[in-house]
Structure formats: structure tokens, C-alpha cells
């Protein structure tokens, strides 16, 4: 009976000694898992910070560009007793560097109409005629002399087949300043000489 009592505690001690490594291994695995999770979080934060830095640098480079501009293109067509088509385009470009601002603008418009006419024999035929043909090219430069003060120059050429003039050219220089700057009211004034040359339709 005494031998039996002695083996039971020894068996219990043997089982407990073999259970310890399982608990210790679980703790090690949990610690490694936590460390991997922390590393993944750090890596994710680093990648996000790198993306943020790249986005900020791209925005800064885009904002730092001195060039700006835009354009538009339009087409319209109507059909009925007559057919009319119209095409217009506009393009503008600006370059700003320091106190200088340079600009270029191009505009064009062309339209035509097709309608039915009867000749002397009563036969019907279609004729097409241009109803608009106009284009404009302009360039300007401005020098900022201070807040709301600038010196400007401008050149402009216009051609119009359906106006009182065939073409006209203008050149001007001016000085502009803001003479009123209230809470809701602002008034800018620009003065300067200009030169205009034109060819009237009657002159050919």
C-alpha cells in the first residue's frame, strides 16, 4: 500500500513536468505573433507615410509649375428646312514667373448654312453659304509693381469676313491700379495709349 501511495505523487509530478513546455510554447508563439503584428503595423505606417510624402511632393511640383492654360472645342448642328453647322474653338495659355505674367489667347469661329433655292425653271437645288468666319489671336504681358498695381502691354489681331472691317490690329500699353478696395466693393482702373489699324470691307 505504501508503494502505491508513493507512485501516485511521482506520476502526478511527471505529468505536470511534461505540461510545462506546452504552456511555455504557447506563450512564445503568442509573443512572436504579437511581434509580427507590431512589425506589420510599423510597415503599413511606413508605407502610408511614404505615399503621403510622394503625394505631397507631386502636389508641390504641380503647384510650382509656372504654366497654366486650357481650351475648349464646340460643334453645333441643326437640321430642318435648312441645315446649319457651327464650329468654334478657344485656347489660352499663361506663364507666370516672379513679377511677370505672359498670356496667349486664340479664338476661332466658323459656321455655314445649307438651304433650298428654286431656279427660273422651278427646279429646287441646295446651296451652302458661310455665315461666320472669324478668328482672333492676342498676346499680353504684365509686370507687377506692387499689390494691385501693374504695367501691361497687349497685342491683338482680328479677322472677320462678316464684319464692317476685314481685319484689325491693336496695340496698347497701360498702367493699372486698384483705387477702391472696400468690404464688398472693389474698383480697378487702367489707363494708357493704344494704336489701331483696320481694313474696311469697302476698301477691299
Write a structural description.
The chain is α+β, with helices and mostly antiparallel strands and 204 residues long. It is built from 1 helix and 8 strands, in the order H-E-E-E-E-E-E-E-E. Strands 1, 2, 3, 4, 5, 6, 7 and 8 form an 8-stranded antiparallel sheet that branches.
* E-strand count: 8
| Number of alpha- plus pi-helical segments | 1
- The helix content, as a percent range, equals 25-40%
Apparent shape: flat
Key structural traits:
55% strand, disordered N terminus, 204 residues, alpha+beta
Task: Summarize this entry quickly.
With 204 residues, this protein is of the alpha+beta class.
Which helices and strands occur, and which strands form pairs?
Layout: H1 2-64, E1 67-79, E2 83-97, E3 100-118, E4 124-146, E5 149-160, E6 165-181, E7 186-191, E8 194-200
Antiparallel strand pairs: 1-2, 2-3, 3-4, 4-5, 5-6, 6-7, 6-8
Amino acid at each position: 500500500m505504501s508503494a502505491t501511495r508513493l507512485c501516485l505523487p511521482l506520476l502526478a509530478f511527471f505529468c505536470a513536468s511534461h505540461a510545462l513546455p506546452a504552456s511555455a510554447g504557447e506563450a512564445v508563439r503568442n509573443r512572436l505573433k504579437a511581434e509580427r503584428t507590431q512589425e506589420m503595423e510599423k510597415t503599413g505606417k511606413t508605407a502610408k507615410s511614404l505615399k503621403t510624402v510622394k503625394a505631397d511632393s507631386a502636389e508641390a511640383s504641380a503647384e510650382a509649375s509656372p504654366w497654366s492654360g486650357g481650351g475648349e472645342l464646340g460643334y453645333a448642328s441643326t437640321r430642318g428646312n435648312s441645315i446649319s453647322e457651327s464650329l468654334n474653338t478657344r485656347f489660352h495659355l499663361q506663364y507666370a514667373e516672379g513679377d511677370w505674367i505672359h498670356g496667349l489667347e486664340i479664338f476661332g469661329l466658323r459656321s455655314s448654312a445649307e438651304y433650298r433655292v428654286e431656279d427660273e425653271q422651278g427646279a429646287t437645288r441646295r446651296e451652302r453659304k458661310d455665315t461666320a468666319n472669324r478668328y482672333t489671336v492676342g498676346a499680353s504681358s504684365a509686370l507687377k509693381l506692387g499689390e494691385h498695381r501693374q504695367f501691361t502691354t497687349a497685342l491683338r489681331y482680328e479677322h472677320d469676313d462678316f464684319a464692317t472691317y476685314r481685319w484689325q490690329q491693336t496695340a496698347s500699353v497701360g498702367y493699372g491700379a486698384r483705387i477702391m478696395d472696400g468690404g464688398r466693393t472693389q474698383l480697378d482702373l487702367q489707363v494708357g495709349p493704344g494704336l489701331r489699324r483696320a481694313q474696311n470691307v469697302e476698301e477691299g
